[in-house]
User: Fold this.
Amino acid sequence: MIPQDEELHDQLMEAFRKYFKANQDWINKGTRRAGMDTRFWLSEIRRLASERRMKIQEWRHDIDRHKAEKKKIQNQKAQDGDNNT
Assistant:
């Protein structure tokens, strides 16, 4: 099961929508302000994407730790079973 970080995902999607609008303004108007807004939203997307990436890595490391602990317990049970026979 993949944990959902809906708030972060929603922020990323909203930043992309705002970037898309700003980019359209920049293409149509070509003003300095429109270009600044476009770059701002690109920076926000990069920041949010990096944060989301870290969350996904943390989740993956948690899964790996959980699997390692589970395997360790299974190995101990198998060894205990071998020692009792």
Remarks:
- Residues 9-84 form one domain.
- The chain has one domain: 9-84.
